[in-house]
Amino acid sequence: MIDSFLRRHLESPLDRCARALDRPAITPDRITAAGLVLGLGSALAAGLQFWLLALVLWIVSRIADGLDGPLARRRSNTGGAGGFFDITADFVVYGTTVVGVAVGASAGYDAPWWPFLLVLLAYYINGTAFLAFSSIAERNGRTIDDGRSLSFLGGLAEGAETIAVHSLWLLLPGISWQIAVVWAAVVGVSSGQRIIAGYRALS
Questions:
Q1: Which residues make Cβ contacts (< 8 Å) with residue 169, sequence separation at least 6?
Q2: Under 8 Å between Cβ of 109 and 173
Q3: Out of 17, 51, 79, 202, which residue is the most buried by the measure of CB atoms under 10 Å away?
Q4: Percent of the chain, pLDDT > 90?
């Protein structure tokens, strides 16, 4: 919901960070891989109930996720394999962190699993909607060019909200399943928005 606003205001700081990182040994794919490993570490830490460590790893992994794109653009290397790796890594990290929180909250706070399953279902539908739109829009010449590798449809739940919610349930694991119920509903609404908007845009 606020991703476009944040991209406008963070573009300059991220570009400066990318300039500082622009060394031969540092590539966009390596930054993506680092974000993936850190995200998986966050999920593992959450599953083991090391909540503060999980939070730190999660935030650092998302910072890495925000830096691979600006570095790729500096090197005129957007899209293609790097874009594919980036979105795949995001999906892996988002899914495994949900599972990690579910395992840790279930073991430590006797939290039910079904709210986290609802979140995963909502993520599945949401991801299907925007990836299908991006693929068909590319074929039909109706892409949305905002500097990213894929054509993203806006919605109520976007990257910034996802980062905030995942951080929140790492901060408050005792009520993580209640947060998950609300978040699943929000992502579900966002999925409906994307399905309707995508259908209209391609009609």
A1: 101, 105, 175, 176, 179, 180
A2: yes
A3: 51
A4: 45
With contact defined as beta carbons under 8 Å apart, do 47 and 103 qualify? yes
Q: In which residue are the tokens 């599972």 written?
A: 99
pLDDT of residue 73: 75
How far is Cα 176 from Cα 113, in angstroms, rounded to an integer? 11
String of b and e for 120-133 (b: at least 16 CB within 10 Å)? bebbebbbebbeeb
Q: Quick check: 103 and 174 in contact, CB under 8 A?
A: no
Long-range (24+ apart) CB contacts under 8 A made by 194-203 are 194/126, 194/129, 194/130, 194/133, 194/153, 194/155, 195/129, 197/153, 197/154, 197/155, 198/129, 198/130, 198/132, 198/133, 198/153, 201/133, 201/137, 201/142, 201/153, 202/133, 202/136, 202/137, 202/140, 202/142
- Over residues 120-143, the mean pLDDT reads 80
pLDDT tens-place string over residues 70-126: 787 776 665 577 778 888 999 999 999 999 999 999 999 999 999 999 999 999 998
Could you tell me the two tokens for 36? 């993936």
